[in-house]
Design goal:
Blueprint: H1 8-38, H2 43-86, E1 92-96, E2 99-100, E3 103-104, E4 108-112, E5 117-121, E6 135-138, E7 141-145, E8 153-158, E9 163-168, E10 178-181, E11 186-190, E12 200-205, E13 211-216, E14 225-229, E15 232-236, E16 239-240, E17 248-249, E18 252-257, E19 262-268, E20 277-280, E21 285-289, E22 294-298, E23 304-307, E24 319-324, E25 330-335, E26 342-346, E27 351-355, E28 366-369
Antiparallel strand pairs: 1-4, 1-28, 2-3, 4-5, 6-7, 7-8, 8-9, 10-11, 11-12, 12-13, 14-15, 15-18, 16-17, 18-19, 20-21, 21-22, 22-23, 24-25, 25-26, 26-27
Helix pairs in contact: 1-2
Protein name: Kelch motif family protein
Keywords: Kelch repeat, Repeat
InterPro entries: Kelch-typ_b-propeller (IPR015915), Kelch_1 (IPR006652), Kelch_domain_containing_8 (IPR051746)
Length: 370
């Protein structure tokens, strides 16, 4: 989305315009008031007074409108700057937990984008399986939520010190929670599963560790993917089940407004299969992968486009991670599945390339770029 850039002088000019306009009109009002005192009841003076007052109101309204427009542009610039902070150049991707041969994991790994080399980092305290969309990077730390139905705590990994800390969470935990970060101090927790499919939208403050409920989804879902963009939370895909019944797909895109606290379904996805992985480019495009195809969805036009698919087997429980590199390239990394290799998609030339895979193959792992 293109954001208009204006010089600071325009804002200063608008303020001066309002001030000067009001000063001039107030001077005229004072002069007309004096005339009315000298010549009371004069029809001409009365009409002139009303005309000056009307002009004062009109001029001031116009100036305030101009000032409001300038303010909105500055707000958009601020939001864009915050959004760009979330997508600064990346050099590493951290991968935690997941499932390997029916075993729930607590391991941690790091992939170096520059060298194409994997190494290990400190493990989590607890085994966490369903983390695909339950991991975010914020202010130097990686936050890992849920992962199993019984867990009501999160883990915080300090990237610099390679230390892991367990933190109680003041809300329902669970598995397959969708999370997204607003670029400041709030991580949003969306949906998930614990004894039932949840519709919650909670806000977790990473500075105070406090959590509050701010809204609900139109449709309860777990194993969904959420992204924060311009004070909106976009949630795509997911599944729903009630108790022990078979799950049903929730192939739709919801938008939750942080300010109005309202959620609306803005797109029904014409897909017959579940979304296995998703990522966001920080601009207007969500990339999604099913076990049959790779697509992108525009948040502006709400149109879907089919992209070249990766050649691999077992596209199940995969992590998609959108990265921006120092040379300006954009790549989407794919981790997990049954293949022995991982992959990345070059966004500019729309081609897939294989990279070294982790020693232990996993699914439903959490992955985040730093």
């Amino acid at each position: 989305m293109k954001v208009e850039t204006i010089p600071d002088k325009r804002m200063e000019s608008s303020v001066n315009h309002i001030y000067q306009s009001v000063q001039n009109q107030m001077g005229e009002l004072a002069r007309m008031s004096s005339l009315l005192e000298i010549y009371p009841g004069k029809e001409f003076d009365q009409k002139s007074y009303e005309s000056i007052l009307s002009e004062l109101i009109r001029s001031t309204k116009n100036s305030i409108t101009e000032l409001s427009e300038c303010n909105q542009v500055l707000v958009n610039q601020f939001l864009m700057a915050k959004q760009q902070q979330l997508f600064r150049p990346h050099s590493k991707i951290f991968v935690f937990g997941g499932v390997s041969e029916n075993e729930h994991l607590k391991s941690g790994n790091i992939y170096d984008i520059r060298t194409n080399v994997w190494s290990q980092v400190v493990s989590m305290d607890l085994k966490r399986a369903c983390l695909l969309s339950s991991i975010v990077y914020a202010l130097g730390s990686i936050y890992i939520f849920g992962g199993n139905d019984i867990l009501d705590c999160l883990e915080k990994y300090n990237v610099e010190t390679n230390q892991m800390m367990r933190i109680p969470i003041q809300t329902c935990g669970g598995s397959s929670i969708a999370t997204c970060y607003n670029g400041q101090e709030i991580v949003y927790l969306v949906g998930g599963y614990k004894n039932k499919t949840m519709d919650r939208i909670d806000a977790f403050n990473i500075r105070t560790n406090e959590t509050i409920e701010i809204g609900k989804l139109n449709m309860p879902r777990y194993y969904a993917f959420s992204f924060f963009h311009y004070n909106m939370i976009y949630t795509i895909g997911g599944t729903y089940k009630n108790g022990t019944t078979n799950y049903t797909l929730v192939n739709s895109l919801e938008r939750f407004n942080i300010n109005t606290r309202r959620s609306e379904t803005i797109l029904s996805l014409e897909l017959s299969e579940r979304i296995e992985g998703a990522c966001f480019d920080g601009n207007d495009t969500i990339y999604i992968m099913t076990n049959k195809q790779f697509l992108k969805v525009s948040l502006i036009s709400l149109e879907m486009m089919i992209l070249p698919d990766v050649q691999m087997i077992g596209k199940y429980g995969v992590s998609l991670v959108y990265t921006k590199l120092e040379d300006g390239q954009s790549r989407i990394y794919l981790f997990g599945g049954k293949n022995q290799q991982d992959h990345y998609f070059d966004v500019s030339n729309r081609r897939w390339k294989s990279i070294n895979g982790k020693t232990k193959r996993t699914i439903f792992q959490g992955a985040v770029a730093v």
